[in-house]
Each structure stands twice: as C-alpha cells, then as structure tokens.
Amino acid sequence: MEAFMLFLTLFFFLLSAFPLFHCQPDNEYRDCQPSPCGKVGNISYPFWSEESGQPHYCVRPEFKLNCPQLKDKDDYPSIQIGSQTFNVTFIEPENHNMTLIRTDFVYNNCSSQNWSNTSVSTSFNVFRYDELYVKNVTLFYNCPSNYSTEGFEFPCQPPTSYGSNSSNYAFYSEYVVNELQLPDLIENCKRRIQVPVVEPDVPPQLYSQILKQALDDGLIAVKYKVDELCQKCWDSDGRCGWNDTSPFICYCRDGQYPLTCPDSSHSSSMRLFTLLPLPFSF
C-alpha cells in the first residue's frame, strides 16, 4: 500500500508540474515567431528580413523583405524581384496574395527609355500575377499627338533636356478602339513597355479615367507560391519552416512534426506517460 501511495503522490506531482514543462517552447518554435515589418505588420514564413534575425530554417531565401527601421514603422517594406524593386503594401498569407508597387516607375514621364517591362518572374517561379484581376497594358511613349484614340492618350513630361514647356503624347494600346492605329503607333512611337494593372471592371466609357487612376496607384495583385501545408501548421498553433533534409516542417511547442502539431491534450497525455516510471509491484 505504501508503494501504491508513493506512486499516486508521484503521479499527481508530475501531473501538476507538467504544464510548466510543456510551456517551455522548442527552440525552433521560438526562433520562428513572427516579426514586425513596417506597415504590413508581422511577417513570418516564407517571408523574412535581415532585421528580424530569423535563422535560415524559418524562412525561404527568395522571400527576403527589406523592412523599415522601427522608427519608420509607418513605411512599407520592399522586395527585390529580378532587377526590379517593389514596395509591399499588403500580404494575405491565408490565400497567398500580396500587392506590390513598382518603386522606379512613373507612367506619365516620357523618360521611359531606361525602363523595362514590369515583371515578377524569377528563376524560382514563386511569384505570378493574379490573373483574375491583372491585365498587361502596353504603353507607347513619345508618340505623335495627331491620333484620335477617344481619350486613351495622355500627355507625359519629357526629359528636361527636351524643354520644360513641352510634352509628348503616349497611348494605351489595349484600349485603343481603332486597331488599325496600332501599326502606326508601333512605327512612330519611340518606346513601348508593358505594365500590369488591375483591369477596370467598368463600362468602356469610364476606362480612361479608371485606367489612369490604376496607373497612378501602381498596385499589382500578385500570388506567391508556398507550401500548402503551412496554413494547416499555423491552424494547429505551429510555425512553418524547413531544413536540409525536409522541404517542410511544422515547428511546435514540443518539437518538430511533418505536417501539423498534435492536439495539445493528446500530446500532453502521451508526453506525461513517457515521464512516469513503471508502476510498482505490490
């Protein structure tokens, strides 16, 4: 009987003490906690920044953000995709959506000879336009002003060397009503580039106004590719990561799991019994 009472005492002691053990987070779980990044709020796998100091197993290299300093927390972070830099204005991890603004592009400046087509393609193929909303628009620059495109032309400021009081016309190709004009634009305009915009969902007579606003805003709807398992890991109170032997790992408070964290009550019971000694014989 004394042995049995001793066993019960030990059992209830471990039972009361176990939550203290369980609350000590695994190192990877602690290291991979979300970190602040300017106006987009907290970022986590696959996004990261040098400022966050997160280890490599918490992030994906191609998702590096340049976060504002804490004193500039009301600024947007930026991301380098290929040779172009974008400000990141929004990240929706649940649906793998983000919105970007190209930082070096002013559509109504005729000094576009140094610009290239806006692109989010990379060798990793992790970013793509959201086809539901984005349409590529070709902009023709330094064009003759004697075309009639029913409001789909706009004056743009030339480089200062051309004279500050002059302007050159530019056109939107996808919205030029008379398609016969396109060969003339291609021949006579000195420069053209492609720019993705959120396609206007308005009657044609309002296209010009809405399109100019979309170009002014510069917003691009982008989807990013990431492990589909990550959301399930987050839903189970885990944190996503990877290592050299596994493309995806769910870091949990009590260790690493391949998909999701176990149910906390089940995990607690199983772990508790591994701590208990074998019952005494009596």
Automatic annotation (TrEMBL):
Top-level class of the enzyme under EC nomenclature: transferase
Protein name: non-specific serine/threonine protein kinase
Reaction(s) the record says it catalyses: L-threonyl-[protein] + ATP = O-phospho-L-threonyl-[protein] + ADP + H(+); L-seryl-[protein] + ATP = O-phospho-L-seryl-[protein] + ADP + H(+)
Record keywords: Glycoprotein, Signal
PANTHER family in the record: LEAF RUST 10 DISEASE-RESISTANCE LOCUS RECEPTOR-LIKE PROTEIN KINASE-LIKE 2.7 ISOFORM X1, OS01G0690200 PROTEIN
Protein's cellular compartments: Membrane
Domain Wall-associated receptor kinase galacturonan-binding: 32-101
Enzyme Commission number: 2.7.11.1
Main location: membrane
Domain spans labelled Wall-associated receptor kinase C-terminal: 165-255
GO-annotated cellular components: membrane
N-terminal signal peptide: 1-23
GO molecular function, one term: protein serine/threonine kinase activity
InterPro entries, per database record: WAK_assoc_C, WAK_GUB
Membrane topology term: Single-pass membrane protein
